Amino acid sequence: MTWLSPTIDRVRTRLSDLAEQAGVSTATVSRVLNGKPGVASSTRQAVLAALDVLGYERPSTLRGRSAGLVGLVVPELTNPVFPAFAQAVESVLAQRGYTPLLCTQAPGGTTEDEYVSTLVDHSVAGIIFISGLHADTRAKHGRYELLRSQGVPIVLVNGHAPGIDAPFVSPDDAEAVDVSVQHLVTLGHTRIGLAVGPERYVPARRKVEAFTAALVRHGVAPDLAAAQRHVISTLYTLEGGQVAAGELFDSGHTAVVCGSDIMALGAVRAARARGLSVPGDVSVVGYDDAPLIAFTEPPLTTVRQPVEAMAHAAVSALLTEISGDRAPRTELLFSPELVVRGSTGPVRR
């Protein structure tokens, strides 16, 4: 009788674990780990991803040489949707052979311009900005034209500025609000409010315009001026959502559409502070469908940003620019999806 040595047994176990995670055979895993030809690129990437997921170190022969550095600038990591964006973009960049450099801003910390200066000093191949100063209608956009003049390809995500010569990728904020209001009207709500971030930012401004138009269209408000009285602009924070929703509840609103999931959690807190149940007394709709938001109490009805699709589009546009070709300048708008859970219900008569 022949017994397997512990070392051989561990190797076979590791191969079988990787094969199961990647959805391939152990023979295919072995070919990838040994750098053998005859394996499709997508299959090879699946095996490498399995190595990472299961916590195994990649063999030095598989690490390869980076195609270049790409900067990824995000406003903060407090809102879970931004880490989700960062992870999605970094994953796509890695699949294309690029090394991402994540730059995260924080109040009182490194600014977007300071990060950009550092990235340029490191000769990055390009930069992706997510919800950057390009989304701020009061910010000067010459900083992006300066980058373009220096030959640095850029892609701007979430916030369109017509004067900037760059590809734009955004969620359809107007559609997101439309489906939210339609959902609440269907449930019988006629006192619907909007809690949103500062209107100086393009996504917030688009949401406000779509919201007021939707109230008029559904007969909830007689005109745009009257509809505007159902809007409260605040900060994109839990506390901001709590304050705005509290004002709306105090003025008799039975439903609140929020500019982010974090704000929606603040709205739920405001309802509970007033002895109101969600969704028994009032309904709350979020925006983003950030990770873990389905496990709140109650599970949050929200509008899902198509993060993965937007990440692929942003990286694709950037690599087109890096290759010397010109990506389309028309803003790419991605349709969001209403995810109905437990924070919305019929209006209480």
Automatic annotation (TrEMBL):
GO MF entries: DNA-binding transcription factor activity; transcription cis-regulatory region binding
Keywords: DNA-binding, Transcription, Transcription regulation
A Pfam family it matches: Peripla_BP_3
InterPro entries assigned to the protein according to its UniProt record, in alphabetical order: HTH_LacI, LacI/GalR-like_sensor, Lambda_DNA-bd_dom_sf, Peripla_BP_I
Span of domain HTH lacI-type: 13-68
Taxonomic superkingdom: Bacteria
Family annotation (Gene3D superfamilies): 3.40.50.2300, lambda repressor-like DNA-binding domains
UniProt protein name: LacI family transcriptional regulator
